[in-house]
Predict the structure.
Amino acid sequence: MCPAFAVRKSAASDPERAYVLGMSQYAVFETAIGWAGVAWAESRLIGAYLPQSNPAIVRKGFTRKFPGASQAAPPPAIASVVDRIVALMHGEKVDLSDAPLDLARAPEFNAKVYEITRRIPPGQTVTYGQIAVQLGDRLLAQQVGAALGKNPWPILVPCHRVTAANGKLGGFSARGGGETKLRLLAIEGASAAAQADLFGQPPARD
């Protein structure tokens, strides 16, 4: 499970206001597989958008999620992340685990899931259950999936590298579903991508 774009909670009493606190800006950029984007506030990343066929889709997504956000050239730390996303989409083994995410915007449990997930290297996968074990309870696998389904930073928190047990692909809530997940895994050279033909029907979601 992993969205094209998702949410979080802030220190504010109303979690929905987390998205309008501070000056939000975003950048849209082209990758080998489409137009992607990142959003930030005060030099911390508050969201990311998976590659789409049209840059207007990304812009619309950001302005809907972050009312009043403006498109801008990213500051150096964010520009470095953009460059690495572009490289990753070209098939390079890029480390994005140090991207400056604003994890304080996420509920505590979700933030722990994201911290574990962002350390999964390109080309590798782990299961929801394995992340649950790292959290101290293998029975938390379903909650892990729910947290990844609300991931505000796809690619930066690579939820596409998290799969179900027994070799199954697992869910993916982004546009394109399992096909998108497989495409990202194939770009990274993950063995899990061999489970289905990228141009055919992906495995059924759990």
In short: Helices lie at 55-65, 76-89, 108-117, 128-134, 141-148, 177-187. The two ends are 10 Å apart (CA to CA).
